[in-house]
Each structure stands twice: as structure tokens, then as C-alpha cells.
Amino acid sequence: MFTRAGLQHWMNLSKLKSDEELVAKIIKEHDLQKVNALFASHSHYDHVIDAPIAAKLTGATFYVDSNSQKVAKAYKEPKIKTELFQDQKFIQIGKFKITPILRNHSHIRSLGLNYLPGPVPDTFDFNFYDYHVGDTWFYLAEHPDGKILIDQGSEPFLDKLKNLTTDVQVVIQGIANRESDEVILKGYVGSFKPSIFIPTHFDNFVFPLNTNADVWPLPGVKLEGLMKKMKKSYPNKKVIYPKYAKKIELFK
């Protein structure tokens, strides 16, 4: 997510749309024109805002639920291609088999509430408070070289995942809203013993995009503490910090 919300959006004084000029600049700078598919975990603005415009600029298909589709359609742009998916029905994209899995969005612990709960309104018009959560998804990506789990939530949904696979080689997981470090250590990591763990959803999206910071976490995330515990509990596991514009190679 490159476009950030400002005070004028929080105060509902200005429409909150993807900054197409910024997105186009980033796509060009980092040679991202060959993207085939885009997914979002849910429809809060910090997850969905740039996906429709990225789909327009790259020609990728934005795979959506009905909530994210409302956001995409609001642009009234024929170059934005969307395709609805269904819970636990896989999508084949080249060598990747992607399975969306429905889950619940966690309460925002710092506020003790559900943030903008419920579906995106049918009258969605790019107001900040139109970006309701909708449904929340995580994804199992299966490739001939291995399986990758992508979940932006910290609470594991093990029963649903175990119905689909008994092994995962890579876990890419959000850590910002975790109840405790143990939720991460004993969740997907403890159950599937992946060889690679990549933390996400810790970047500070409250302020303008900082492309010069290697790691710029949200206040209170305590990223370093979690990583120390991860290395102590699983000394042979490879832990990778995702950094802006740095390629990550998962399989040789």
C-alpha cells in the first residue's frame, strides 16, 4: 500500500483514492509491469486502496470478494479487471494454485473495537469511512517448489488450513495486532514448522511513505522482540525482514 490517508481524509474533507501518479512511478521504478494477479486480505483502505489502480496500470486481474469489487468498480474504469473468488475454491495462475480462505478480522487491540465493521456500502464513494472491513481472507499459494501461506492476521486459523494442507514451507504473516508473541510462535509456525518466516503488516502506514527506511515499524509493534524469540525458539528457521523494493527469493 503506497497511498496514505492524511488528516483531511480522517476529517472526511477529501476523497481517499489511490494516488495513481505515485503508483505509476513505483511500478516503473521497480519494473513491476509484469504483474499477473493482485489480491487483498480485506477492504480497509490500508489493504485495498492501491490494488484497483495497480491492476489498471499493469493489466493484472484483481481477484476480489464482493466488498473489494465495490471499491474497484467505483473508479468506473474499464481497464480495471476484477474476478470474484470463493472461499476455498482455488485459482490457477501460471504455476501457482491460490486458495482464498475466509477468516475473521481481529479486534484492534489498541482501541478495543472492531474498526469499520461490516460490508463496504453499496454507495461507496471514496470517503475514508466507506472503507469497511468486509470479509477477511488469507491465502495458500501452492507452487511446484513449495507452499506459501499469506495471512495478514496474527491469530492463526489452523483448522481451516489443516483441511487443505499438512505442510507449509513459507509463512508470511501480519504481526501488528497480535495478542502476544506466543500467538505467532505457537500458531502457523509451531504447527507447520516452515523453513522461512516473513513478518508483515508492521510498517508505519500512518505517515507518508518512507522509501528510505529499511524497517519503519508502527509504534508498539515490538518487532525486534518477536524476532529474538523466533530465533531462540526456532534457531534453524530463516527469518526475512521484508524491505522496501528488495526482492525476496523463496525457492532456489
N-to-C SSE string, H for helix and E for strand: HHEHHEHEEEEEHEHHEHE
* Integer average pLDDT: 92
Number of helices: 9
Portion of residues within helices: 10-25%
- Structural classification: alpha/beta
Give the number of DSSP strands.
10
Q: Which spans of ≥5 residues are poorly predicted at pLDDT below 50?
A: none
Backbone shape? globular
Q: Tell me the fraction of residues in β-strands, as a range.
A: 15-25%
What keywords describe this structure?
7-stranded mixed sheet; 24% helix; 252 residues; 9 helices; 3-stranded parallel sheet; alpha/beta; 10 strands; single chain
Summarize the helices and strands and which ones pair or pack.
Elements: H1 7-10, H2 20-29, E1 37-39, H3 45-48, H4 51-58, E2 61-64, H5 66-73, E3 81-84, E4 91-93, E5 96-103, E6 136-143, E7 146-151, H6 158-162, E8 170-174, H7 181-185, H8 188-192, E9 196-200, H9 223-233, E10 238-239
Parallel strand pairs: 1-2, 2-3, 7-8, 8-9, 9-10
Antiparallel strand pairs: 4-5, 5-6, 6-7
Helix pairs in contact: 2-4
Describe this structure in words.
The protein has helices at residues 7-10, 20-29, 45-48, 51-58, 66-73, 158-162, 181-185, 188-192, 223-233, and strands at 37-39, 61-64, 81-84, 91-93, 96-103, 136-143, 146-151, 170-174, 196-200, 238-239. With 252 residues, it is of the alpha/beta class. The strands form two sheets. The chain has a seven-stranded mixed β-sheet with strand order 4-5-6-7-8-9-10, covered by helices on one side. The chain has a three-stranded parallel β-sheet with strand order 1-2-3. It starts with 6 loop residues before the first helix and ends in a 13-residue tail after the last strand. The mean pLDDT is 92.
